[in-house]
Structures are given as structure tokens and as C-alpha cells.
Amino acid sequence: MRIGLFVLLVAAAISIAAASSIPAGELPHDPLEHDSLHHKHFDGDQHNQQYDHEAFLGADEAKKFDELTPEESKRRLGVIVDRIDEDKDGFITLAELKNWIKFTQRRYIDEDVGRVWRKHNPENNETVSWETYRKTVYGFMDVLDKEELEQEENGVSYKSMLARDRRRWAVADLDLDDELTREEFTAFLHPEEHPSMRDLVLQETTDDLDKDKDGKISVDEYIGDMYRPSEANEEEPEWVLAEREAFTKHRDLDGDGYLTETEIRQWIVPNDFDHAESEAKHLIFEADVDHDEQLTKDEVLDKYDVFVGSQATDFGEALARHDEF
Ligand SMILES: *[C@@H]1O[C@H](CO)[C@@H](O)[C@H](O)[C@H]1NC(C)=O
Known about the structure:
Elements: H1 2-19, H2 37-42, H3 49-57, H4 59-66, H5 70-84, H6 94-120, E1 127-129, H7 130-138, H8 146-150, H9 158-172, E2 179-181, H10 182-189, H11 198-209, E3 217-218, H12 219-224, H13 238-251, E4 258-259, H14 261-268, H15 275-287, H16 297-302, H17 304-307, H18 315-323
Antiparallel strand pairs: 1-2, 3-4
Helix pairs in contact: 3-4, 6-10, 6-15, 9-10, 11-14
The site of 2-acetamido-2-deoxy-beta-D-glucopyranose has 5 residues, from loops.
Subunit structure: Interacts with PCSK6 (immature form including the propeptide); probably involved in the maturation and the secretion of PCSK6.
Main location: endoplasmic reticulum
Protein name: Reticulocalbin-3
């Protein structure tokens, strides 16, 4: 899964930082994160519950729900169901659920961008310049030597992080003044949601996966992004074999053994894919016990773990953690 790569790279970034005792707060926003939601969900063929929670609640809210008892998260879910049911007829339709998912996604992106924007632009100027941004995020690089800058961990170095951010900044900067407005900054931070950033997302994904730099993705590069054996001759789990088959059947459309640009595009940023609709259908499918293609409040609450649930295995512990603050 792309998220796997992302976690790996952030871990790499943090460990590089630790080694050079750079305060974690000075690290860039996640410069390597650009997983389209579509991508996260459908890779690995594994049902990813956390993904469903984030689509339904938004990532921030999903985290808050993780800390609640089952009773409290059910109660709040009931309140949300009433809100989703726009015409108050007691049924949640596909359209209503789709609207809700779009709303939570917009809200999340808006809050996320707001946080980072305030950090880089406390006076709330109209724009932020590249130089200001670079100094805050990558300023520590000014005192490093060439070797430190180019030292790679999992194929990522400070230099490559900076280069990626620089390129992304330039693409987001529609009026070419090298400064970003808040709207342009949104495209910079969340390129996967912006049509004008599609080619860049495609490029970044290819760069990440294409380890031998031949411009196309082999089945092993494709698998290597989501799975690495912990031992040399470990047998591949079932889901990896299923992914290999999916590569051949659904991704490598011309059957030449590689994903080339068109095929990568069709996979990562397909023109016809509506993430909110697909997620809404999936949630209805999971909870629609009487198969009438809409949901009652009881159907949602009966399947509350599909919608909100909790990742915490020990509520007592989660609550205790919460009480510290
Ligand atoms: C905002 O504008 C002021 C006045 O032009 C300037 O001094 C300041 O550096 C700017 N802040 C940022 C983050 O660019």
C-alpha cells in the first residue's frame, strides 16, 4: 500500500533527524505523502478499516473517536447519522452519504492546511514565498556538508526531499511568482485532490516505485512498495499473491510485464474515479442488512465498528492517556 511507503519514509526521515539531532519539529510536512485516497483503499485487497473511518469522519475526527468508549462513540455516531439524513426521512441514501464524505474530506483538508499555513505565515500575509518556506523547513541544511545532504536512507536524502518540495511548489504556483496563496498552498500540501497537480502526483509515484529508474514499474517494484519479506526466502502471503495477479490482470493492461505511463495514470489518477461515491457504496454494502440500498440509523449503529469503531484495544489505557492532559 502507498501508505506503507509513506510510513516507511517518514520513519526514515525521523531517524535521519534523530541521527543528526535535528528537532523533529523542523522536519518538512510530509513531502512524500501523496497517496490518493483511492490508492490507499484498494491496494492490498485488504479491507482497511482505518481508511473507512477516515473517509467517514475525516482523519482528525477519526483519531478523536479512537479514544472514546464504545458507548460514547455509538452515541456520537447516532448524532452524525441524524445530520447525514438531510431530508430527515429516516433513511441515509447513497447521495446523502456521498455528500457527507465529501464534506468531511473538505473539512479535514481545510483544517490541515490551516494549521500548516499558520505555522509558516503567522501574520497571515496574502502569500508565502518559497524562500521563507525553505528557510523554516530546510534551513538546517545550510550547515550540512555534501555528504550529509546526500546520505540516503531507504532511497531518501535531505537533498532529494528538498528537490521534491521545490518541484511541487513550482507546479502549485499557478501565477509563477514563486509565492503561494493559501489556495495554491492547499494544492502543494494535498496534490492528490487537485486536477492541476495530477501529472506531478503521477511523477512522484513513479519516482518512488521505479527503483531501477528505467521509467516503468515492474511487478517486483509494484509489490516492493507494499510488501517486503522479513526473511530472505519467506513465502509470500496470500494477499501479496493476489496483488501480483491484480497487477497482471488489472494494471498491466497491455500485458508487457510493466506499468508504463498510461497504465500508471489509469491506476493512480483515473479520470472516471469518484472516491466519495465508491466509499459511500462500500459503506452501504457493509451495513445494509435488508438490501434496500439505503441505511437506517439502526443499521448504522449495528455496524458501528465499520463507521467509527476504535483502533484502541484497551479503552482503559486510551482513557488514562487522555486524562493526563
Ligand atoms: C509578511 O509580511 C511582512 C510585511 O511585508 C513581512 O515582514 C513578513 O516577513 C511576512 N511574513 C512571511 C511569513 O512571509
